[in-house]
Amino acid sequence: MAPIGLIADVELVRRAQAGEVAALGALLARHEASMRAVVLTLLGPGPDADDVMQDAALAALGRIGDVRDPAAAGAWLRAIVRNGARMRLRGSREIPMNGRALLLPAPSDAEQAIETHAMRDWIWNALEALPAPLRLMVMLRHFSGISSYQAIAEACEIPVGTVRSRLHRARALLAGVLLDNASRAHGDASALARDSASEALETLRGAEQGVQSREILDLWPREARLDGVLTLPGESVHPTLVMAKVTEQGVVQRLRQVTASRDITIWEMDVTGPDDGFGPMVPTLAWIMFRTDRRVHRLRVVFPRPLRGWEPLTST
Questions:
Q1: Model pTM?
Q2: DSSP code of residue 45
Q3: What is the pLDDT of residues 116-126, one digit of tens each?
Q4: pLDDT tens digits for 269-298?
Q5: What is the spatial distance between Cα 102 and Cα 201, in angstroms, rounded to a whole number?
Q6: Domain residue spans of the chain
Q7: Strands (E), the chain
Q8: What does the alpha-carbon distance between residue 187 and residue 200 come to, in Å, rounded to a whole number?
Q9: CATH class for the domain made up of 188-302
């Protein structure tokens, strides 16, 4: 049998629909970078983006059986996170399920969606493994009529902020366990992330020192272009010009998280710097890189909120 990392999406979907959790984990790991790129473009880096990604993993668990076109699994997953991000922007009580925007289901509907799914035993076992306070939050939020943050807070006699933090921890644990099922069988995703983290650290180090290594220069070839809010509309410049300007302004970036696939890589950064740069006003940012044969051909930098204090660069 071929290693799961070499299996096409179609077969992974079929295995997942048959109840193979590692196959679903591998599918999520394979498309994680493109899913996260969609979320970051809409929301910017931060807790909301993390929540949408975690919700998407759980939505995929419950709705993988609804996928009718296994070859379009990547598009289906991106639709889930796109809807989730848009709902965050609207402040809606809707949740993303099978690529469409659905209202929070009634308890019987939610339970039926899980109970009729081939992975129901894994799902309930994973829920049982959560600490009781976190398990209660998930059950109320997704499997009861007491589903709003305010209603849960009142029912449990705790602050709304505690509800949010517990749900965040619960989703992170469940999503982490799901992806863990793929880590042993889908090691290429982990290897890509490790290699990309090394590239990120070397790129940042070179920017601070004003000299990049030959390997990093090869990563950012002459034809590489940056576009987005750091440049004027319709303009694109080489990424190293922006790296140099950011460094000159005293902005310091520290790598916080890497998400990598073969053609998309995301570096999320913590940012510090002087008031005349965008450091203090933008505590985080993300580099979204589109790659061909490892080399970056396009870079887009996204922020958690509109950028101030930056004069866009031009190609001249």
A1: 0.75
A2: S
A3: 555 666 777 77
A4: 998 887 666 666 778 889 999 999 889 999
A5: 41
A6: 4-185, 188-302
A7: 95-96, 101-102, 225-227, 252-260, 264-272, 284-292, 295-302
A8: 20
A9: alpha beta
